[in-house]
Structure formats: structure tokens, C-alpha cells
């Protein structure tokens, strides 16, 4: 199930031991890909600029090989000599994985053929070359499967079975899938006689299913928001570093054995995303946009949007800039003066001299004109999932793919966010507000006094940043053509020499517009709400129609 590696398309070089697991974030309004001179690092990111066409190549996952294996398993295990309880549990796990496979495909392509038995070459031609089922029917299959198997899965897993599906993993998938279907019905349009799109009158029904599944998880008492550390920044970081914590519903497990060199199960998040020092003198692979930074409010609940004209005038300390930000900002993003491995991250690029000029080369009176970080990007990096103790200097053989943090596929905060969104769309505004305020209270930020659709979406954007949700969210809300089709920016820090000599670091700030490149404007086209089936697949199956807009 390669998509478990944050939608990457395989294992090893194609999975979360290498660049593909970061693509789903880099094609959104969250961040850019910073390693501009490396083709592999740019491959997925390049689709961001209107490049997704009928040939595909972005986030592709046509999962009928694992589906066939699962179908064979489901058919053969009941006739085995295994213990009856074990057979029931394992078949339920397989059906969960099959439902997840179809969800991974339907959210990419819309309706796809539902193949629920292992095919044989002697099967009728209409079964071997099936047409695409309707998108609504695929979602209904996923939801019905999860409801059918949930009580055959354990409520909790033993320590030796961590990473296997539970009843609540099934409910979490049901909550997410139904929410996607509901918003596609509400905001999308039906095309190809329902092969893509869901009738608008089905939206409330799907919202109710999502609401009920989320509430069943909430009412179980099995999970709660992680809230063990007094310091709110540390607490939010530890959601992603403390394994099997109270918020974890379903995770892809990792260990520290090298995921490339020795065939182990480590992944590359620390080595690729950390600040320098780093073995290749790189790191900071994903560079968050200033626009995302501005999404993080201040702790009193006021907007985090900067007065860009104001900040480009005068001098500013980091405390004045970011000091009162939502603690999730510091746990999600690093920037100038972020503490790191006994020192701090230094992005300053330029030295403001007493005469008002800016020196950019070498040093001035012993003060370096540039810091030690990569300044070709936004001057922000991704802190979420980073383990500060990881050795990022040891090189490929021992450090590259050895991160052991589990990847959280479902966590309780998403359940609350799903619940809030579904509740709001069903007219249950008080329940939506209460769920959102649970998340804000854990974060250490002022509660909301009222709720609306934009506030729910904002909270989701901040809470789930860099967890692989944003791309799918703006697609299902049908706002990607606006949200992902404009230029983004970064921020340059220029150190003030006189302040520095007086023991206080102040900075002149400069907005870095069109940070992806003056000729590279992000563009999400209308047809990109669905990935292309591709010419290869439609050519091999004459009954397979292509998605609208691809020629």
C-alpha cells in the first residue's frame, strides 16, 4: 500500500525513503521544493505549473495489483486451516486495505472499475475489460465495506500488532471518505453520466455518514488529543515523535534501519528536511511559503497576516515578528533564530551597515554577512516530524533513510476536524464550534466565539499542515483553481550591524515575491480536479473513458 508513505508511489527510491513522499505538499500552497538543481527533487514539483496533462505522472497510483492480491487473499483464507477468529480478523484487515486502495484511487481519478474478485483469463470479456463505475458507487462501496468489517477488527492492537488496522482505523477511513464524497457532491459537478462527480442531493447523506463515524470514534473514549507536555510547542512536536500516543488511530510504522541501503524501514524526513548542518550541506527540502506562515494566528486569536508595507520599513526583532504566534507555528515551521541542536537557525542574508548600505559578501568587522542556511528559498523550513537528536551528518550509508518516526495516517485531531466540517454543513454549528475549540485549546490559542466554513477550513490548514491533506482538501472543496493558481512569497532577513554589536539582533526585512520563479506561476487547471486515466490505460481497455479536459 505505497500511498501510505504520504501518497508516494512505491517503496525505496519511489517511496518515503526518497523525494516522492514530499510531492503532495510541494504542489500545494504550503511550500515549494528548494533543491532546484536536482532533477529527482524537482520532478513532482514541476507539475505545479500547469504541467499535468493526459500523460499523467503526478501522484499516480493505479492499484489493481494489490487489489488482485487482496481479492485472492479474501477468497482463499476462509478455506484454510487457520483459527476461525484469526481468519475473520485477517479477512477484515484485507477488506480494510482493499477499501483504502479504492479510496486512494477514487480521490485521484473519480469513478474506477470495482473489481471484487480475482479475475481469470477465462472470464467473460466484459469482466476483463470493465467500464468505469460511477464515482458515487465507489464511495458507497468503500463506506459499506468499512461498516461491514468494523466489528471484525480489534478495538485495540497488541504491542506486537501495532500498525495493523483496528475498528477505529476503519471508522476513521469511513469518516474521511464520506467527507470527501459529501464535499464533491456539494461543490463539484457531475460529468460523464456520473463517472465523475456526485449528485448534489447526496451531500447531506454523506455528511451524515462522516459525522456519525467521527462521533463513534469520539464517543468510544479510546482516543484524546495529545496533551502531555506543559510547553505547548513541545507538546505539538511530540504528537509526531512519541509513538503510539493517545492521538494515534492508524500509523505507518518506521524504524531506524536504513530504508534504502539495507532494506530496512527507515525514511528520509530528518535528512531531507532538517536545517544545516547536514551531510550534503543541504536539508530544508520543502520551503514553506510566507503565506502559510501568515495563516498561523497570534495566541490571542488575532490574524497572523502581516502588514507587508510596514514590516519592510524599520528594524525588527524575531520576538516582535513571531513571538506571540500560535505555538503550532514554532512546532511546524523553523526560520531565523529557531533553536536547533545547541545553536540556532541562521538565514540572515546581508548586513545593514551604519551608513545604510547593505553588504552581502564575506564579513564586516568580523560579522558575517550571511548565515549558514540555504537562502535560495523562502527562508522557512518544515519542523513537523523532525527529531533534533537525529544525526544528519553521517551521510547516505548511515543517516539518509534512518528516520524512525511513525507516519500518522489517521490521528484524533483530524477526526475532530472532520466532525466539525460535517456538523457545520448539517447545521449543527454549536457542535462544530466545540470541536474546533478543543483543537485550539490544546494548541494554546484563544477559542473562537463563532464558527463558519472559512474558519473550519483555516483550522484544518494550520493543524494539518505538511501532513498530506491540503492538496486533497482544496480539490474536494473545488477551490484549487484559485488557491493554487497564483504566485507565492518568502522573507529575507538582513541583519542590522549596529543592533548586533549592542547585543540585540534586529533585522531589516524584504518580501521575496514570485519565489517559485518569475516565469513559474503555479497553475491548477479545471481538469486537474481529477488525475488523467492516461492514454496507456484507455488504449488497453476500450471501455475505459478518459477524464474530462484531457486530450
Automatic annotation (TrEMBL):
Domain called SusD-like N-terminal: residue spans: 63-178
Keyword Ion transport set for record: no
Subcellular location as annotated: Cell outer membrane
Keyword Signal: yes
Record InterPro entries: SusD-like_N, SusD_RagB_dom, TPR-like_helical_dom_sf
Domain RagB/SusD, residue spans: 247-550
Domain of life: Bacteria
Chief localisation class: membrane
Pfam families noted in UniProt: SusD-like_3, SusD_RagB
UniProt entry keywords in alphabetical sequence: Cell outer membrane, Membrane, Signal
Family: Belongs to the SusD family.
Protein name according to UniProt: RagB/SusD family nutrient uptake outer membrane protein
